[in-house]
UniProtKB/TrEMBL annotation:
Keyword Oxidoreductase: yes
Pfam families: Acyl-CoA_dh_1 (PF00441), Acyl-CoA_dh_M (PF02770), Acyl-CoA_dh_N (PF02771)
Taxonomic path: Bacteria, Bacillati, Bacillota, Bacilli, Bacillales
Highest taxon above the source species: Bacteria
Acyl-CoA dehydrogenase/oxidase C-terminal domain ranges (all copies): 229-377
Listed name of the protein: Acyl-CoA dehydrogenase
Entry keyword set: FAD, Flavoprotein, Oxidoreductase
Protein's organism: Fictibacillus marinisediminis
Length: 379
């Protein structure tokens, strides 16, 4: 069992850490205040060849593995949670379904622009009445001649304002009285397609979270992604991979909160002594460090299993569940260690705390992860 990163993984980690520290972190707080999407950051990542990191070079990708993707998400999230989730969704929700289920023509037409950074990746799954119960999809796609006519709405969709196209799920018929859900690729500039960006969120203020309205949107029949009726199965597979990304995001945010708390505890004096000398604070920091190490190992293991072509649904759910809940705990302790300063924007930990909450919700809530794990262990 080898825990060492490969030369390529170590190189990606070094590059992403330097990029995050130099390009992402300095303006993260200002972007959060202004709710400004980091367009320039992702343009630079495109030039570095990172936007298609885990996809084959023939599609403009980097040919790297899932562990490298997790490392990239973690380092971006350490500097800015909004940048981390944007990148994670771009790859795991935007690019992955096209790579896994698309035809060669679809990959050339839709995956290549995602890998090169010409388009942000997005995926339309969640609806007002279909969150954890994704089978509750109500958006419809009716076949009319050689076209699909799509009607419905989606909510909480990441990156859609900056995506030129996205795959979304819709009901395409019924089989034995059950909904037949399929995935269809839709250009965002199609007539009748509207992207609304006006959510007021707790955190991740500089990420793009949108509502989609589809009013008689027509797309060619060849825009069907994979086989008709396979949409439900496809998004379950997609979410498995996405959970590795959210787990890595949680590790990155937790690492940032821990680093701030550790540094502050060494500088801040109370009763004439540095906070780090008090056993109560030492124990908090020790627990934080332990949870980060455990979470990172779990995320990397799930990524390794995926790269080996082995089953990883259970491990991805465990990694996402543990990392996200540990992240919330660590961010809460970071605020507590900072005391009153932790409640103020200037010390950053309140932003980590706000950003962390989404990791317990996105790509399946903590409750859904426990359902997945229960199923996988045979309950």
């Amino acid at each position: 069992m080898n825990y060492a990163l490969t030369d390529e993984q170590a190189m990606i980690q070094k590059m992403m850490r330097e990029f995050a520290d130099e390009e992402v972190a300095p303006s993260a707080e200002q972007r959060d205040k202004e709710k400004k999407f980091p367009v320039e950051i992702f343009q630079k990542l495109g030039k570095l060849g990172i936007m298609g990191l885990p996809f084959p070079e023939e599609y403009g990708g980097g040919g790297a593995d899932t562990i490298s993707f997790a490392i990239a998400v973690e380092e971006l999230s350490r500097a800015c949670g909004s940048a981390g989730i944007t990148y994670s969704a771009h790859v795991s929700l935007g690019g992955a379904p096209l790579y896994l289920f698309g035809t060669e023509e679809q990959k050339q037409k839709y995956l290549v622009p995602i890998c090169t950074g010409e388009s942000m990746g997005a995926f339309g799954l969640t609806e007002p009445n279909a969150g954890s119960d994704a089978g509750g999809t109500q958006t419809t796609a009716a076949k009319q001649g050689n076209q699909w006519v799509i009607c419905g709405s989606k909510c909480y969709i990441t990156n859609a304002s900056y995506a030129k196209h996205l795959a979304l799920t819709a009901i395409t018929g019924k089989n034995d009285g059950k909904k037949e859900i399929s995935a269809i690729i839709v250009p965002t500039d199609a007539e009748g397609f509207k992207v609304i960006d006006n959510y007021e969120k707790l955190g991740l203020h500089s990420s793009n979270t949108t509502e989609l309205i589809l009013d008689q949107v027509k797309v060619p029949e060849e825009n069907l992604l994979g086989q008709r009726g396979d949409g439900f199965k496809q998004f379950l597979i997609t979410l498995d991979g996405g959970r590795i990304g959210i787990g890595a995001m949680a590790v990155g945010i937790a690492q940032a909160a821990y680093d701030k708390a550790l540094a502050y505890s060494k500088e801040r004096k109370q009763f004439g002594t540095a906070l780090s000398k008090f056993q109560a604070i030492q124990f908090k920091l020790a627990d934080m460090a332990m949870k980060i190490e455990l979470a990172r190992n779990m995320v990397y293991k799930a990524a390794w299993l995926k790269d080996q072509g082995k089953r990883f649904s259970k491990e991805a759910a465990m990694a996402k569940l543990y990392a996200s809940e540990a992240c919330m705990q660590i961010c809460s302790e970071a605020v507590q260690i900072h005391g009153g300063y932790g409640y103020m924007r200037d010390y950053h930990v309140e932003r980590y705390f706000r950003d962390a909450k989404l990791t317990e919700i996105g790509e399946g809530t903590s409750e859904i992860q426990r359902m997945v794990i229960s199923r996988e262990i045979g309950c």
